[in-house]
Amino acid sequence: MTNHDATPPEFKSKLEAAFANYLQGLQYGGIVTMWRYEPMRLHLAHKTSYTPDFLVQMGKSLILYEVKGWHKNRRDSLTHLKVAASLYPCFRFVLVTRERREWKEKVIG
Q1: Radius of gyration of the chain from its Cα atoms, rounded to whole angstroms
Q2: Could you read off the pLDDT of 81-103 as tens digits, one per residue?
Q3: C-alpha separations of 45 from 42, 55, 104 in Å
Q4: Which of 38, 52, 59, 96 has its CA 20 to 30 A from that of 17?
Q5: Between 71 and 28, whose confidence is greater?
């Protein structure tokens, strides 16, 4: 099943909804195989977990995206991403921002 067959998820921000639309376009174009919104929770430490915003499959690669606007505290997000990247090397972790209508990606780890 692809995302366009499923009931649309409720996004926590307009930026996340915009990124989902971007991913959907990439899926229609054949670049993205599939994507899911908040698909899992990763255990990082005692009483500490991290829920990535998006899981994206491109070919055989699995990428976890964290979407952040300028107003959010990126330091905490970056710390969680660095810890998650070290604990879960089977995924590629990417911090995504949007600047001047363009998506910017920063690979973590």
Answers
A1: 14
A2: 999 999 999 999 999 999 888 99
A3: 9, 21, 29
A4: 59
A5: 28
Cα three-residue angle 20-29-31, rounded to 5 degrees: 75
| Cα end-to-end span (Å), the chain | 31
The 3 state secondary structure assigned to the chain is CCHHHCCCCCCCCHHHHHHHHHHHHHHHCCCCCEEEECCCCEEEECCEEECCCEEEEECCEEEEEEECCCCCCHHHHHHHHHHHHHHCCCCEEEEEEEECCEEEEEEEC
Closest CA to 31 of 51, 58, 4: 58
Domains in the chain, start-ordered, CATH in brackets?
Answer: 16-108 (3.40.1350.10)
Q: Give the model's pLDDT for residue 102.
A: 93
Q: What's the confidence (pLDDT) of residue 1?
A: 42
